[in-house]
């Protein structure tokens, strides 16, 4: 059974690679939406080992305790000892992490059991986390990825932390290495602005934490939706600490594994996108008119998330228009017709 599962997974990866070659590249998909990359994948704060240790490094980055350990190493990058970086793992595990960094050439000894980063200064763990998740998505899902992306977009600024291509669909992922207490409402607003601008099929707001998302992150999203007068959409729980908005925007953390949580998101999206398409068709069946802007198609006050128009607070639906339209389409009857 194990061999059959292994062969099946290998075949799925082979088919994904074949399908990827048959669909437009990520660069082409972005150009079709009016986006041209002018900067990507910065390396100033990227913390990587020597080449021969790269695979082991990626495996260790899958562990939440190792990522927390690296954050502490960066925090104390000029000088640290074992007690400085032993907040989230046992002394034995942390000592093993230190020995790995020494072998991989990422830190150096500067005294008795004291160390420092060889590459300094490093501002944060952010770039390394973005690089790692891009590697993870590429390896796990055979998806083309780019991270640390900048576009020349006058209306919406900031970086797109990660963009990936799944078949002919675009996934955008905002990656937060900071704990929830250091994430603020402005970051939620900027994320939704970028979603609005790019209109990806899937958008993920990821926080590298195992803390509850319902305590702070989800309420901030709910408040931002109310501010945008989109509170009717709501934030719904997918499972555990995974949430979604309108079937295309997802809020996740790292509890249970980053790869597993992304799998849950993708599975939910692919199984529910047909239902969303049916809803959009249903919405178009009724002629819509706005008291402010006349026809909805010309409305300048609309809000959009993931490419789907949402209701303006001034919008009103005139259901009689659809009935009148149907009556107008009927052939005229002669006066003698009973």
CA-based shape: globular
Total number of helical segments? Answer: 10
Determine the CATH topology of the largest domain. Answer: Trna Endonuclease, Chain: A, domain 1
Which residues form runs of ≥5 with pLDDT under 50? 280-298, 300-311, 313-329
- Specify Rg, calculated over alpha carbons: 25 Å
Q: What's the architecture of the largest domain in CATH terms? A: 3-Layer(aba) Sandwich
**Termini Cα gap:** 73 Å
Instruction: Going across the biggest sheet, name each strand in turn.
Output: 1-5-6-7-8-11-10-9
Taking the sheet with the most strands, its summary is: 8 strands, mixed
Estimate percent helicity: 40-55%
What is the string of SSEs from the N terminus onward? HHEHHEHEEHEEEHEHEEEHEEEEEH
Number of strands: 16
User: Helix/strand/pairing class, anyone?
Assistant: alpha+beta
The overall average pLDDT, rounded, is: 84
> Which CATH C-level class of the largest domain is it?
Alpha Beta
User: How many structural domains can be distinguished in the coordinates?
Assistant: 3
Beta-strand percentage range = 15-25%
Provide structural commentary:
The protein has 338 residues and is α+β, with helices and mostly antiparallel strands. It folds into three domains: 24-41 and 125-279, 3-Layer(aba) Sandwich (Trna Endonuclease, Chain: A, domain 1); 51-117, Winged helix-like DNA-binding domain superfamily/Winged helix DNA-binding domain (Arc Repressor Mutant, subunit A); 289-329, no CATH class. The chain is 41% helix and 20% strand. It is built from ten helices and 16 strands. The chain has helices at 2-22, 26-32, 54-61, 64-75, 91-103, 126-141, 185-198, 217-227, 258-284, 319-329, and strands spanning 37-39, 80-81, 107-111, 114-117, 144-151, 160-166, 169-176, 202-207, 236-239, 242-245, 249-253, 289-290, 294-295, 303-305, 308-310, 315-316. Strand 3 and strand 4 form a beta hairpin. The longest helix has 27 residues, at 258-284.
């Amino acid at each position: 059974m194990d061999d059959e599962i292994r062969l099946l997974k290998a075949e799925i990866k082979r088919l994904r690679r074949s399908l990827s070659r048959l669909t437009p590249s990520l660069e082409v998909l972005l150009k079709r939406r009016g986006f041209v990359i002018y900067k990507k994948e910065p390396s100033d704060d990227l913390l990587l080992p020597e080449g021969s240790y790269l695979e082991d490094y990626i495996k260790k980055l899958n562990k939440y305790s190792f990522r927390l350990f690296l954050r502490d190493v960066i925090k104390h990058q000029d000088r640290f000892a074992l007690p400085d970086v032993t907040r989230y793992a046992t002394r034995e595990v942390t000592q093993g992490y230190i020995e790995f960094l020494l072998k991989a050439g990422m830190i150096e000894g500067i005294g008795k059991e004291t160390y420092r980063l060889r590459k300094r200064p490093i501002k944060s763990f952010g770039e390394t986390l973005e690089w790692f998740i891009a590697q993870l998505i590429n390896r796990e899902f055979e998806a083309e990825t780019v991270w640390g992306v900048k576009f020349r977009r006058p209306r919406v600024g900031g970086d797109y932390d990660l963009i990936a291509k799944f078949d002919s669909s675009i996934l955008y992922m905002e990656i937060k290495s900071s704990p929830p207490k250091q994430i603020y409402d402005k970051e939620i607003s900027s994320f939704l602005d970028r979603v609005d601008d790019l209109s990806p099929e899937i958008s993920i707001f990821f926080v590298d934490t195992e803390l509850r998302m319902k305590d702070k992150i989800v309420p901030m999203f709910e408040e931002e939706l109310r501010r945008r007068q989109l509170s009717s959409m709501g934030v719904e729980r997918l499972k555990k600490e995974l949430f979604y908005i309108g079937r295309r925007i997802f809020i996740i953390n790292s509890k249970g594994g980053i790869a597993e949580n992304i799998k849950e998101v993708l599975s939910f999206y692919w199984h529910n996108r047909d239902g969303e398409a049916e809803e959009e068709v249903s919405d178009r069946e009724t002629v819509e008119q706005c008291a402010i802007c006349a026809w909805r198609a010309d409305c300048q006050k609309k809000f959009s998330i993931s490419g789907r128009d949402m209701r303006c607070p001034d919008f009103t639906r005139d259901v009689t228009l659809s009935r009148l339209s149907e009556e107008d389409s009927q052939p005229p009857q002669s006066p003698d017709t009973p």
